[in-house]
Structures are given as structure tokens and as C-alpha cells.
Design goal:
single chain; about 240 residues; alpha/beta; Rossmann fold; 4-stranded parallel β-sheet; 13 helices
Length: about 240
Amino acid sequence: MNVQLFIPCFVDQLYPGTGFNMVKVLEKAGCTVSYNSNQTCCGQAAYNAGYRDDAKSVCSKFLKDFSGTDYIVGPSASCVGFVRNYYQSLFENSSHHHAVQDISKRIFEFSEFLTNILGVEKLGAELPGKATYHDSCAALRECRIKEGPRKLLSHVKGLTLTEMNETETCCGFGGSFAIKFDAISVGMAEQKVENAIATGADYLISTDLSCLMHLDGYIRNKGYTLKTMHLADVLASGW
């Protein structure tokens, strides 16, 4: 199966290793992965900040960069959810209408592509330790992702998964929210991290690196040993 790789801005700039691990896992699952190096932002940042015209220009480029018939897979429910759910209103009654309808059916977050499209759960990963999983708002509410990542993690050899309290509660990142309302944002991160630590977990795992980046900042500030990991990094472990 042919797959176009969608790498969000912050993954490209801050966590490129996760992108490589996603390719590693997809290829092991039998996919042929291609990457268009001309790709840029999906437009979410500008859209959320209220710059709709600028966002529309960036989103138009995204539609062009990911034209075709292949599935599009990205390691971010936030960005995938934005393309899937907000492009339609942004390009309503425009010449891009049909392209938007098409791309919304082809774009998938990494874990949902593995479980829902490929039907894969066992990938031979191995990671000894205890883990807990954070449901990002985008995964849970924009992409309706809940059980898939847990099924994938349940097959990681040596890994014990324990649910934390209030796992569906926001971590406090929310993009610009963390900047505009930093005190509230940090308080929400504290709640999430303390709930994770209460499980005895070694690893805090999620589908979204934006959440993990935010939580890792709090963890490092407190000097905790809890380690944040993206699902793709977990599934690429041990082989």
C-alpha cells in the first residue's frame, strides 16, 4: 500500500526522530512510504490565531502538495483533525471543494491508520516498563481515537499499561492557549503529570507531540524521572 507521509512543522523542527520511526513502523507493516519535501504547514496555527486569509493560502498549498489517491498519514491527531474537520468550512463554495472532500477521506493519524485501515496491532515492539496513556483533545474529540492506541500498546512486549485518573482531561497546551494563559496551562499540566506519576508509570505516551512537549517541560522543571514518548517511538522500540 502506498502512503504519503505528512510531517507537521513542530515534528520536523523538534522531533524528527519520531517521523523516522513512523516510517520504520509503516514499512514494517508493508507500506511503501513517499515524502514530498515541498510540503509545509497544514495551516492550523494561522487559522487558530484568526488569520483566515493567510491560513487559506497555506491550506491551498497543502491540498496541492498532497494531491493524488494515496493515503496520507501523520503523527499528529491535531493536524490531521484540522485538515479533516476545518478545511471543509474554510473552502466552502470554492473551487477546492471537491479536493477537500477527497483529502478528508484519505488523511489519517498514525495509530488509526494502523488499526482501522491496515488492521495491524502486533508490530513486534518491545519496551520493558510501566506506561500510562494520555488522550489528547485532538485525538479524542477531533479524530475519535480512543481504543486504537491502547490496543497497539497492549501488544508491546514487556510494557504494562495502567490508566491514569482523568485521562481524557486536557493537558493544558492548546497551542497559543499555553502562551496567553500560561498559569492555567501549567496548572493543567501539573494535574495531568501528577495523575500519570500516581500510576507508577515510567512512560507517559500519547499520539500528539504537542501535548508531550508541554508535559515534558513541566516534568523537567520538577526533575521527575517520568519519560514522555510518542506512540511511533514506542512501536519502533526493540527491533
